[in-house]
Amino acid sequence: MTEVNKVKTMEQHSILIYILLAIVITNLIRVTPMVLIKGELHNRFVRSFLYYVPYVTLAVMTFPDMIMATPTPLPGIIALLAGIVAAWFRLGLFPVAAICCVIVYLLI
After folding, report:
1. Cα(19)–Cα(29) distance, rounded to whole angstroms?
2. Closest by Cα among 88, 87, 84 to 66
């Protein structure tokens, strides 16, 4: 077996290990709460925490990309602040997104 084949075999082996590890971790995260929590949750804090987890996760994934998607961070930051103000005044999702896009377009 040549050196190139050994390296390819090791890379394939490592990739398979990474994929299997990702599968195990993902399933542990999803299965553990179902195993540990048998009935209805009565704790107000836990219920509130679980209610907001999807929103926080979406925000953590979205906000940095909103700022870094422009050539410089300034238009993204200004559009983010304008979007927060527009959402504060109870505009819908489409108007907020349109306002943010127009601001970024004008500032670039």
Report:
1. 16
2. 84
pLDDT tens-digit series, residues 24-40: 998 888 888 778 877 78
Rounded to the nearest 10°, the torsion over CA 84, 86, 89, 94 is: -110
CA atoms of 91 and 89, how far apart (whole Å): 6
Residues 31 and 50: their CA atoms lie apart, in Å, by: 15
The two three-digit tokens of residue 20, written as one number: 């299997």
| pTM for the structure as a whole | 0.54
Which residues does 62 contact at the CB level (< 8 Å), separation at least 6?
Answer: none
